[in-house]
Amino acid sequence: MVRFALLLLLAFASFQALCFAADDDTVFYDSFDEPFDGRWIVSDKDDYKGVWKHSKSEGHDDYGLLVSEKARKYAIVKELNEPVSLKDGSTVLQFETRFQNGLECGGAYLKYLRPQEAGWKAKEFDNESPYSIMFGPDKCGATNKVHFILKHKNPKSGEYVEHHLKYPPSVPSDKLTHVYTAILKPDNEVRILIDGEEKKKANFLSADDFEPPLIPAKTIPDPDDKKPEDWDERAKIPDPNAVKPDDWDEDAPMEIEDEEAVKPEGWLDDEPEEIDDPEATKPEDWDDEEDGEWEAPKIDNPKCETAPGCGEWKRPMKMNPGYKGKWSAPLIDNPNYKGIWKPQEIPNPDYFELDKPDFEPIAAVGIEIWTMQDGILFDNILIAKNDKVAESYRETTWKPKFEVEKEKQKAEDESTDSDGLSAVQKKVFDVLYKVADIPFLSEYKLQILDLIEKAEKQPNITIGVIVSILVIMLTVLFRLLFGGKKQPKVEKKPEVAETSNNQSTSGEKAEEEEEEEEKEGTAAPPRRRRRDT
Fold first, then answer.
1. Contact assessment for residue 309 and residue 267, using Cβ atoms and an 8 Å cutoff
2. d(CA 169, CA 515)
3. CA–CA dist 77, 96 (Å, integer)
4. Which is it for the CA torsion 180, 185, 187, 188, positive or negative?
């Protein structure tokens, strides 16, 4: 009993200490439990027509700041009571955001603004307003990253330069609430957390972590240095002693006629490939003077359907065994090769040394975004001087919501069908069933349906099934584009007599060829087409 009482006393003391630390180290916090009017200032700039709303997060009684319209620019800012120095100890930047309708193209980042003496006004807040740090998710097209950008003043030039965190973490792709945390440490370290898990650690002064680096290179290529005229960068050169062989014919064609080919029996030389449609009639409203002389539309010549081909027959082409192409001398090592020229390095006049970043203070928190999505909800924006404070807010404000949303999402995915397929997989299968109905895949429809059914029963093979169907589609398209039409049989001279004796009519011969090629799984061109190759 005494031990239990001591544990309770210890727990109470720890809780009190945490609450005291939270109160003492919390610089700014907004839970948006109350309407933002009067506390946050919406920009009056003409470009920013997006309407902010005080709205509940879907499925919760918790309120947040909502992006309510699609395809709009938004700008809103909250001035702090006092500027926050980033040079003293640790600083933690944290906020929650939820893409309730998903995020295909848009940003959900915060800007931590410099004091207004830097040249901005709350009512005129826009993308040009000077900030110290920009932090948060951004996704559109190839961009998918959690930005961390430090705007740092160059002590030599006096210019402010944006330094981007290299290889930032990607944005979660679901519709759940996520919490983003940036921890700036006094040892020049910055840590990026998503949902309390560290995703990136970097050093402000490392050239490997920020682009461009905060500290410029000590040397730079000499802009006045010029490559010498006699500098040879060619590693290989044509052998000057090489001679073209006497039997090398540069004029020989790549292809020649196949002299062994003979015109297939039954070829209809005098029949055109297309004829006038005998069932077509001139429209009643056709005016010869205005519309010109009416001509019947063309249709495929039915006589060519059972023949090897129609029209003038030409021998097909084949590769010329004597073709060698343009002769060129073989390459040898260049005796004068000096390597790839580079200008010499000189001291960088803009170089400076830095022990710590010269952070500008934070005087306001702003959201300035352009997004194609609505339903983006911001909540629980925090600035603190202790990462334990941020952790406590994550545990009390974010985690309960996230767990509820995660369980709800899991239940929705599992209850959609008794087979346990996820919503994403169902969409994939719906598309695959539509693919199976594409006309040019009709020969393979049963095979495709069989693959889909197997994947529905075994969701773990879905990717393999998609690959298999893509292979089928590409194979069929390749045949249609590059020889899917049946080529008339080209007979060789020694085989003419045997072919004539064994096949009674050209119609039977064509049917047998069709059957044979169908067994082999190859498509064939209409036999009415003239043999051009």
1. yes
2. 58
3. 16
4. positive
**Cβ 181 vs Cβ 225: under 8 Å:** no
Two tokens at 471? 């292979």
Express each pLDDT in 210-230 by its tens digit. 999 999 999 999 999 999 999
- Three-state SS for 230? coil
385, 397, 394: which is closest to 21 by C-alpha? 385
How many other β-carbons are positioned within 10 Å of the β-carbon of residue 87? 13
Nearest Cα to Cα of residue 345 among 439, 221, 161: 221
181, 92 contact by CB (below 8 A)? yes
Pick the CATH number of 17-221+355-408 from 2.40.50.180, 2.60.120.200, 3.40.50.300, 3.40.390.30: 2.60.120.200
At 430-462, the pLDDT tens digits run: 777 777 667 677 677 777 877 877 776 676 677
Please state the rounded mean pLDDT for residues 75-82: 96
> pLDDT, tens digit, for every residue of 474-494?
887 777 666 544 444 444 444
DSSP conformation letters of 70-123: SSEEEEEEEEEEEEE-SSSS-EEEEEEEEETT--SEEE--EEEEPPGGGT--GG
Tens of pLDDT, residues 329-381:
999 999 999 999 999 999 998 899 999 999 999 999 999 999 888 999 999 99
273, 301 in Cβ contact below 8 A? yes
Count Cβ atoms below 10 Å from residue 382 Cβ, excluding itself.
23
Question: Taking each helix axis from N to C terminus, what angle separates 445-457 and 462-481, rounded to the nearest 10 degrees?
Answer: 170
Give the residues across from 113 on adjacent strands. Answer: 131, 364
69's tokens: 């319209």
What is residue 150's three-state secondary structure? strand
For residue 428, what are its two tokens? 């994939």
Query: How far is CA 470 from its chain centroid?
Result: 19
Q: Count CB-CB contacts under 10 A for residue 506.
A: 17
Measured CA to CA, the distance from residue 504 to residue 236 in angstroms comes to 64
DSSP 424: H
DSSP conformational letter for 340:
-
The tokens for 210 are 């920020």
In this prediction, residue 416 carries a pLDDT of 59
In DSSP terms, 41 is beta-bridged to 77
**What's residue 104's pLDDT?**
81
3-state secondary structure 201-216: EEECCCCCCEECCCCC
Task: Tell which residue, 514, 506, 509, has the closest CA to residue 486.
Answer: 514
Tell me the residue type at 97.
Answer: T
Distance CA 132, CA 399 (A): 29
Q: What is the dihedral of CA 463, 467, 472, 476, to 10 degrees?
A: 130
Torsion of CA 193, 196, 199, 200, to 10 degrees: 40
Sign of CA dihedral 167, 173, 175, 176: negative
Q: How far apart are CA 177 and CA 380, in angstroms?
A: 11
Residue ranges per structural domain of the chain:
17-221+355-408, 420-479
End-to-end Cα separation, the chain, in angstroms: 99
